[in-house]
Write a structure and sequence with these properties.
By secondary structure, the protein is mainly α. The protein has 15 helices and no strands. The longest helix has about 30 residues.
């Protein structure tokens, strides 16, 4: 007899609000794991007597590195064992990583814990996308993912303030205790309320040969990889900002205590635009909105570069906030659409497809953000140039993918 975990019910019983809320929390674990740590960087540097304060950025990079590997595993696993199994297993691994980081006696062990967290958080990130793909396609999927993005963007808006609140009354290690408690709570909710969506007959038996064959098919499908690389570059631009944010506000504008507030204001641009995208995508389509957002991102980023150059790399706070907010609005429109367009032609290999797409995007984002981040010089110029490069490359890839889309329309 199959266990309840492997049994597939005919239809999801969750209402739209509960479904979106639950999956927003599941996908928000990545953002929570990144943004809550930002205010703790000085305390971490002091705890481990780090010679270079920039080493604390490895706390973010280690998590993304773990995701690169985890995302390759949980896609095939969700296609073989089911979406629910993969999500719960990933959450368990994430909890182990939290314990390792929370009890780390050296900076190296802290990073090891973060890598484990990255591997684990890939489970809910990847399998939840495949679960959504099981139930929605095309513009409907983009609409659902945009609403999920709108909800989960509250996390990066509030996470720095949460991190600052925790380290005000406790140690930075308590942040990982909070991660642990939240993950267990979400896991219980998910395990009780969400049904399995991948039926036994649609599961793909685990086979390295079959995985290699499917991977080759996906990797050589130009439309899928174009969207995946574009999403990775845009996420890299976002990581570039996250890595520079505290330094920009502190070094240029002397903003320390109110940093979480300014961070939240800019992050709200992603939430607002994601909400609007959920309304507009049904009318205008994913491609039209995406290419328009990329062009707008290029224009706004160029304006930020111009203002930065004219002000010796230190634009007035009003101009920096205003233009950056518009840039984040463009990014908010893009994330849901790019993921949906990449997933649209995957067919029943949605788990493996989501795995390869996410792993490729994470790898691209790490490379992009690390290289661009090396050029930070206490000005906003490197940030503006990074956004411009992301917009230009994204425009080219999305336009090229759309041109060849009709020629490669057969699902995998």
């Amino acid at each position: 007899m199959n266990s309840p975990l492997n049994q597939t019910t005919k239809k999801m019983q969750l209402g739209p609000f509960e479904f979106i809320s639950l999956f927003a929390l599941l996908t928000s674990l990545v953002a929570l794991s990144i943004d809550t740590m930002l205010p703790a960087f000085p305390a971490i540097a002091a705890s481990y007597a780090l010679g270079d304060s920039k080493d604390t950025q490895l706390v973010i990079s280690a998590l993304i590195l773990g995701m690169v590997f985890g995302e390759l595993v949980f896609g095939p696993l969700s296609d073989t064992k089911g979406r629910k199994f993969a999500i719960l297993l990933g959450m368990g691994i994430f909890c182990i990583g939290c314990i390792v980081s929370m009890t780390a006696q050296s900076f190296e062990w802290l990073l090891i814990g973060r890598v484990i967290q990255g591997v684990g958080v890939s489970g809910p990130k990847i399998a939840s996308r495949a679960l959504i793909r099981d139930q929605y396609t095309g513009a409907s999927m983009a609409r659902i993912m945009s609403f999920i993005m709108m909800f989960f963007i509250l996390v990066p808006m509030l996470a720095p303030a949460l991190g600052q609140l925790i380290i005000t009354f406790a140690t930075w290690q308590t942040i990982f205790a909070f991660f642990l408690l939240m993950t267990v709570s979400i896991g219980i909710w998910f395990s009780i309320r969400q049904n399995e969506t991948l039926s036994e007959e649609n599961r793909i038996p685990f086979s390295l040969k079959a995985i290699a064959k499917a991977s080759k098919s996906i990797l050589f499908k130009p439309t899928i990889m174009a969207y995946a690389v574009t999403a990775g570059i845009l996420f890299g631009a976002l990581l570039l900002y996250i890595g520079m944010a505290q330094s920009i506000f502190q070094d240029i504008y002397n903003i320390v205590d109110l940093f979480p507030l300014y961070f939240a204001i800019l992050a709200s641009g992603v939430g607002v635009s994601s909400f609007l995208n959920g309304k507009l995508v049904m009318k205008y389509g994913m491609y039209r909105l995406s290419i328009s957002a990329l062009l707008a991102l290029g224009c706004f980023s160029s304006l930020l570069l111009l203002v930065s150059i004219l002000s010796a790399g230190k634009p007035p706070l009003f101009w920096f906030m205003s233009i950056s907010f518009l840039c984040f609005c463009c990014i908010g429109i893009l994330f849901g659409n790019l993921t949906a367009m990449a997933m649209e032609t995957l067919g029943k290999a949605a788990g493996l497809g989501a795995s390869i797409i996410a792993s490729s995007s994470s790898l691209v984002s790490v490379i992009f953000s690390v290289i661009a981040g090396r050029f930070y010089n206490q000005t906003t110029i490197p940030l503006a140039i990074g956004f411009i490069c992301a917009a230009i490359i994204g425009c080219y890839l999305v336009y090229s993918a759309e041109k060849s889309k009709l020629k490669h329309a057969t699902p995998i």
